[in-house]
Every structure is written in C-alpha cells, then in structure tokens.
Amino acid sequence: MKFVQAKINQTEEVIQLYREVVKLMNRNNIYQWSEDYPRPEDLKKDIEKGDMYLLEDQGKIAAAVVLNEQYDAEYEDIPWEDRTGRFLVVHRLCVNPDFQGQGISKILMEKIEALAQELGYTSIRLDTLMANGKAMNLYESIGYEKRGQFYFPSHDQPFMAFEKKLVQI
Q1: How far apart are CA 9 and CA 95, in angstroms?
Q2: How many Å apart are CA 158 and CA 32, to the nearest integer?
Q3: Is 120 exposed, middle or buried (0-12, 13-18, 19+ CB in 10 A)?
Q4: Helix 104-118 to helix 133-141 angle, to the nearest 10 degrees?
Q5: Are 132 and 148 in contact (CB under 8 A)?
Q6: pTM assigned to the model
Q7: Please, which residues have CB within 8 angstroms of residue 121's CB and are 6 or more apart in sequence?
Q8: Nearest-CA neighbor of 125 among 85, 168, 169, 96?
Q9: What's the pLDDT tens digit per position in 66-86?
Q10: Which N-terminal stretch is annotated as signal sequence (predicted)?
Q11: Structure letter (DSSP) for residue 167
Q12: pLDDT at 22
C-alpha cells in the first residue's frame, strides 16, 4: 500500500469515492455526511492545495483523507491536552467500500501518524459523529483519547473530538 498525495487527474475518482461512501454510510444509518457534504468543489480544492492524501493498493484508491492545520470554531472549546505544540487535523477520512473490513482505516491512521511525526507535529486532532460506532471504536483502539463532545450547527447529533499526542522521534 502506498500513501501519497492525491493528484489533480484523480479528482473525479476521488469525488466518486466520497459519493459511494456517503451512500453506504446513509444505508447504515450514519448521517455524518450527506449529498451536500463533502462538496465536490471542496474535494477539488483539497487536492489542489495538497491536503488530500490517498492510500492506494495496486492502482486503486483504498482510502482518502484530508490533512492540514485547519479546524472548525467548535474545536475552540475542547479541552485539548497538547496546547503548546503543532497539531495536525484529520478531515474527511473515508475507506473505499470495496476495501472495508480489511483493516484499511488502521493502516491509514498509521501512515498519517508517521507523516505527522516526520513533519514535526506533536499531536493529531480529529472528530467523528458519536453514532458512528466503528469510527469511535477505531480511534479509541489505536490510542486516541476522547477530549469532548460538541455539535456542529448543521447536525442534531453530537460529535466527539479525539486527540493523540505523538512520541517525538
């Protein structure tokens, strides 16, 4: 598996991947995303800025994620532990439905942590809809700590913020 930055010529493939993931999430009663989010124009910008990363397996996209230092205003009230270092924020993590159930999300998180350490980040922050049990279990199982519950204005269900401090190498 290769962990690479998405290329402009992969934009349509990435957009289609997110559409398929949203359909599957909705079928499983996980309404974290919708047909309005993530928007194709946002995914295109993520790729253009170099923030979109892909986990590829034999030329197929197994997973996608956006990594940067941007965060929503709701993060301001979270009691983060790492307040002095640089933190990387994980956005829009998704696993291709064809690859689900194979441990891909765990592999992707390992790649994200390795990249974050290489780039000098001291922690990683992310969030997920609390009703997304698989994501909640994943993050806790790989050492992410719950930092606080919050609501996005567009959702009536709560989200959980997670953080993992990184060991400096």
Answers
A1: 20
A2: 10
A3: exposed
A4: 50
A5: no
A6: 0.94
A7: 85, 86, 87, 88, 166
A8: 85
A9: 999 999 999 999 999 998 889
A10: none
A11: P
A12: 93
| Type of residue at 118 | E
Are 143 and 113 in contact by the 8 Å Cβ rule? The answer is: no
Residue type, 155: H
- 15 neighbors 91 (Cβ within 8 angstroms): no
Q: Are 165 and 124 in contact (CB under 8 A)?
A: no
Helix (H, G, I), strand (E, B) or coil at 112: helix
Q: Which two tokens stand for residue 54?
A: 């892909």
Question: Are the C-beta atoms of residues 139 and 127 closer than 8 Å to each other?
Answer: no
Query: What is the DSSP pairing of strand 159-165 with strand 2-5?
Result: unpaired
Would you say 50 and 78 are in contact if contact means Cβ atoms under 8 Å apart? no
In the chain the domains, ranked by start, together with CATH numbers, are: 2-165 (3.40.630.30)
- Rounded to the nearest integer, the mean pLDDT of the chain is 94
DSSP 19: H
Contact 122, 165 (CB under 8 A): yes
pLDDT for res 130: 95
Locus of tokens 């933190």: 87
